Every structure is written in structure tokens, then in C-alpha cells.
Amino acid sequence: MNFATPLSALFPGTSGRLLTALVDHHSADADRPLPLDELSKNASVTSTQLEAVLFRLGLLGLIAPRRKGAAVHLVPGHIAWGALHQLTDLRDAVIDVVREEAQARLQPAPDYLALTGAVIEGTATNPADVLELIVVPPPTARADWHQGLATLVTHLSRDLGNVVVHRAAQDMAEAKAMGAANAVRVLPA
């Protein structure tokens, strides 16, 4: 999965770049009209390419009716904007999925679980980019606990569309050193 520019990955070409620029504009100032030359620059597409996509977005109701060449006025309250915003920042969703899956699959829960790598940093652009789990197993872990961890890693790799790996640490200090300052703690919450 491309976590850096997910809309462009899901909607290749002009449509994805335009949607990304419009979502950015919606976040910054949804009520301000967006001149075509500014939108063209932000989306890296020609104004001619924009018109066909803008027409389709108008049919969906994301933008107000407009004449060809006129500035774009977003419909800020349209229901689709929320979904589009969620797609542009999947970091919190990844954290939630890892937390839920770890709690469901690892009994007892790890003493510590943190995430690092391109996926959690939001810079992943292809499936080879990694999400790394840094884990401190609980002292009461049974012999099969590590098999549960391996199953979790496999499951997350499939569901996230990126390579998920794990490293085990003996204690919290070692785990924090492995993750450095950019690790995101998942458990304990």
C-alpha cells in the first residue's frame, strides 16, 4: 500500500492527483474558492485535464456547479470528504488495527508493543516498505506465544498490504533503544 499518497495510488493519474489537491484544500480552507491555475499547479495537471475530472466530481456533488474555466467551490459538508480525509492519513487506523489484532491474538498481552518504519511514518510508497513491530513478550508467555506473534505478523502483512516484521526485546529499555525516538507505542495503551 502507498501510505504517502494513497489517493493517487487508489485513483491513478489525474484523478488521484486532483483528489489529493482538493482534500488538502478542504483541510486548509474549504470555503475559499480555488482558482484553476492554483489547482492545476497543486495537482500537477493541466487545466484541460482538470475539466473532465471536475465535471465528474460535480456530478458527485463534491464541488458546486461551475462553468468551464471557473474557480472551484467545494461543497464542504459533503459526506465523501470525511472518507477521503481518512484515506489520506491512515496512520491512526494502522495503530488501531495493530492494537486490536495484538489484543485479540496475543494472550497474555505483550509487556510492550511499538511500531516503527515507513508505514507508521506515512512515507511508505510500495508494498516492500516495512512496518516493524518492537515487542517485549510478557514474562508469563507460554511456549506457543511466539507462534501467535508470527501469525499476527502474517495477518497484518496481508491486511495492510505491506511487509510487517518484528523484533523482540528483553525489556522496555532495550525496546525503546530499538525504536529510537520515532517509535509509536501501541501497548500498553
Summary, kept brief:
With 189 residues, the chain is an alpha+beta fold. The protein has helices at residues 6-10, 14-29, 36-43, 47-60, 79-88, 91-105, 118-121, 145-160, 172-179; strands spanning 112-116, 130-136, 163-168, 184-187.
Structure description:
The chain has 189 residues and is an alpha+beta fold. The chain has 9 helices and 4 strands, in the order H-H-H-H-H-H-E-H-E-H-E-H-E. The model has no long low-confidence stretch (mean pLDDT 92). It folds into 2 domains: 6-88, Arc Repressor Mutant, subunit A; 91-187, Alpha-Beta Plaits (2-Layer Sandwich), CATH 3.30.70. Helix 2 packs across helix 3 (36-43). Helices cover 51% and strands 12% of the residues. Strands 3-2-1-4 form a 4-stranded mixed β-sheet, with helices on both faces. Strand 2, helix 8 (145-160) and strand 3 form a beta-alpha-beta unit.
